[in-house]
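User: Can you fold this complex?
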Amino acid sequence: MHDIKTGSKLRNSAASVMIETIATLSRHAPAITAAAARELGNVQLHLSFGDGSRALLTAANSVLTSRSDPDAAPYDVDVHFDDRALTLLFDAAARPADQTLENSLDMRGTRDDLLAVWRCFRLLSQRASGLRLVQAIWSAYRDNLPKQALIPPKIGPDRSADWDAPKWPALQWLEQRHPAATDLITRSEPVLAPARSLWNGVSSDSWQDSTAIFDNDLHLTMQRCKARVVADILALIPTKPPQRDLYALMKDYVTREGKGLRPTLVISTCLALGGKLEDGVRAAAALEMFHNGFLVHDDIADESTHRRGLPTLHEAHGIGLAVNAGDAMHLFAVDMTLSNLATVGLARTLGIIHEILHMCRETVEGQAVELGWIRRNFVPSRDADYSRMSTKKTGWYTCISPCRVGAVAAGVTDPALLNRFNEAFRMTGIAFQIQDDVLNLIGETDLYGKEALGDLLEGKRTIMMIHLFRGASQALRDRMTAINALPRLQKPFAMAQEMLAAMNDAGSVDYAIKVADKLANQGVYRFEADLGFIPENPAKAVLRQVSNYVTTRAL
Amino acid sequence: MASFRYTGPVSAPPSGLGPAGPFPNAPLTDPLDRRWLHYAFLSRDGRRAMVANASWLGPAEDEPAGTEHFATILLLHDGTGAWQSSQFNATTERPPWSAFMRPFPHGQPRPLTIRSANGQPAVSLSLTRTSRPCTSQSAFFARHQHLRWQSETGVTAVGDWHTGMTERVDLVGYHERVRGRWCWPDLGEWVFGFANDMGGDPAKPPEWAGVFTFIRPSTDPTEATASFMLWHNGAMRRHFPRRCVSFATRGTLDPDRITIAPPFAQLLGTPPMALPPRRLAITARQGDDWVALDFDGEDAARIVIPSETSLNAFSVHEVVGTCQLSGLIGGQKFSVETRGIVEFAGGAQNDSQGGVTDHA
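Assistant: Here's the predicted assembly.
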């Protein structure tokens, strides 16, 4: 687990900066930490800093974990940074190898382990230093350091030194006279990226940054995509009566806090394939409306009490109004789908309708399989049964269809190309579902949004439950079957806790995490193998981030 | 050749866009011969920006020498951040307004009307010169290709602005003429722009104005050239040549702030390209004189120009934003906060099929 609590506010020690950086990256650029974790492997890395603070960096299940380490736990590699060497790590403008002073950096460990650490840090510094949030953390840390610690040594004649006071060359003008955090004419947010020289009177460079970092801030992107889609939906929901009993209810779920995964997939796929933002937004709005209609009905069927941190619609307004609002959402979703006619034309609209219909069919089939298991109080014994159900219920619904809809909105209608999304995002989708189920058991309610242990109370057939039943003694299986047989409202919370304890004893949660990690990694592999036809661009980088997102969600 | 259609061939204008010499009044004879008139204006209230370009391209391979293809595009930007653009077939006067028509005394307004084929966006303006042009400049690259240009700041414009509704506008800007022979992949990329001091008496030239240029041919980056020209009260006071100028950028503009133009570019599957920088700093010094321009981009229109010799289009990002122009000239210090327009152009060279380096 990330030591987020220590990292969010404390920037006074180098260890806390490192911890906060890893936590921020896990949230905003999971592809980077997943790749760094793969490079680090099993190496336990101990970091000691010039200010006396220490941290331990480890990797497990594609998750990079960093925590403070005051007691110096066992480690494989020991690295010491002084303040200057540390800040150079994330300073994209200077190469540490050229700038590090003697004794400012020391590494101890076996050759292979040292190389693993070097690869991990190289990857982090190259790919993460372009993220604004990371730069904000490091610039805040650097600004609090004594200035003499940061002055680079003079190497060779400094030709720019002739330009004193206000006559600085443009690069120094941006870097020193108007450093990033203190821009004089910035309108709202500082530009934190390092300054680049285009022309210094002698040599030139392209204004097109060929080393542009394509790992976008996923968290921010998802927020933006969701906000754009929500705005589109709200504009289409009537403002006329009946507001209180219908239209206000329809807006309720839409405006609640949510990850925005589906809108992000639709819009990113559309943009990655050369489509316009508006084309993707309208299609994503239709999909999101279907999704919210399903949620309303799903919450009623599952007797759920909370959704996205607030009471479910039927809890707040009664089952009758909630069912009606869910129906209306589906009606408006059809309307929104048809409204694509104005933006993408008839052929693409028909393609989008086809994709959404396919998604709905897969989803209701998957939902029927799971609800049938619950109704008959049956727990399948094979993971493959879960996989088939989850492919329909989550793979298509959450990941595959949004991508395909986005592709169709961009004008890609070739079935062979559309099918390329299936396997990569099927695995990603199932991994996402398993992670979601694990979060329901061990995640904090505030972060997760649903009520704690809600899945156990409703008897949801998760990979953990399947694993528990598969290995349980007959007596334990009978007991768990009896618990599952009880209707949700008659099931005391203590029974859910009892089942959770049994799962922990059987190692079911750890097993689920491993399965999810394996699936997610397979999804990442298939992403690269199958989706090479999409040109490299920032939107594809967002899709790549999503495929890594499931592996690094905070557990 | 590119797949878009021009408004049709026209014969060379019988009378002049300037004297013989760097901008000869001679017909275009090569398929890559080009002549341009460029207009860029900002409203005095800081809310609007206008960019327009009238261009002539030489004859196609199977056309007689002297045949010219004319195209005009108009882009209007309002305070909400939205750009409206015509296609490349906007209509305008023939020949269009130019400060380089002779004779053309100061204080004498002349019309410039540019109208999209469907009626809007459109402008109907009276343009008045208040300043004098800079000396012409040139860039040579890829053996036989070249580009010459000449700018004049402090052009004022009043008139009507049509973007769904008609509004009266008061603008200050700059005008430029360009002549040369080049293909887009070999030209590589450029950073062009200007800033006028928009305060002071509207009837007089801006107290301070600057125009800058950075051209970086792709075939040989050592052929890059740059300059900064500074006007004071309508006359060019300093020309800082390439060795005395430096350019630097930081960050990139938010992709949501970039509009692709003309509208039909959306239909052609225009490939993505690098985002234009958000900050641009230019400093120049010569002796004790120095000038610094610090630009912070806000919104951009990416004009996608089909390339005659490569699959990738050439894109010109017209970026509007705030600008600080300061310096010390002849012992006189100045500092102006204003708005400017910067062009970040390029993109055609990322195509290995492109380039006609040996074109004679």
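Confidence is low (pLDDT under 50) at residues 1-14 of chain B. The two ends of chain B are 18 Å apart (CA to CA).
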